[in-house]
Sequence to fold (342 residues):
Amino acid sequence: MVHPQSGIISGKARHHHSNLARSGTRVGPKFVYGVIVLRAAMEKIMQQIRVIQVERYATRVEKVLAYIESLGAQAQPTLDELAAVAAISPFHFHRVWRVMTGETVFESLRRVQMGRALVALQNERAPVVEVAEAAGYASGQSFARSLKAFAGASASELRADPAKMAAFVARITHGLRAQDDDVPGIEVTIVELQPLKILATRNTGAYESLFNGYGRLFELVTQCMPPEDVRGIHGLWPDDPRTTAPEDFRFDCAFSVAQTAGAAPPGTHWAELPSGTCLSARHVGDYDALLDTIDWLYAMALEAGIELRNAPLFAHYIDDPESTPVAEWRTDVYLPIEVNQI
Fold:
């Protein structure tokens, strides 16, 4: 069902090397030196390509920021609207934004609001209500609360203390996040997936409530089929728990089952996991740390300049958490990508 495409180039290289060895071809010092120089040149070129590819996504982020700044102070753009400006699938825009900027879209919107407030605050005669209006807040009270949460100070304190004002300005002018040097040693592969029909149910609530969601799905499914017909545990991630309010977080709990004909059990629906080309990474350990693996998989895709397909991130939970130690839980994460980018 899964056909990894990774390792093809290295496999050809090993085959070529073995042919040289069998033929007795002599590899002289000049040849070896030339290979070393060529490899160094290629590594330099690939590094430049990676920089250009990351800049492509950075340009999209800057385009969205410019769009946000061009809107009126009262405007409240939606995620779908901003994803369209960035030309990134709505399934992935929120994660791409957070990986690239180090903050959520909501935090960026608030930062733009605070930038507007800064301009008004510099006029010491402007009352707080006028500053709030310039920043797009409905009332002086709501602005005062937001300003206190963002800057740790009131408008009068910022105006009176140059150090606090400087810290406020520094936070507003926060730039794109630098690449992390400390990355996990996780192997990323390119796989080709066949269609897989699943039984699913939507769970809306905190990420920590997913165990309850799967328990409910198991009860619904086993009312219509024996437990041994459940063949695999899967999940689709339309939302990101790190950017979505717990009460709004949506997640599709899913099982692959032995029989895929007939009506779905009440409370469930038939769905299909995204097929085609995906980036895949295996996570081992608890599900809280799985979020870091997902972020890293996105970071790898952005660094490689790979276009993300208009399909949700999804996962295959290989082990039963009720019978497997937490440290041994294996999860394969799949990120659908455009095939013409490979």
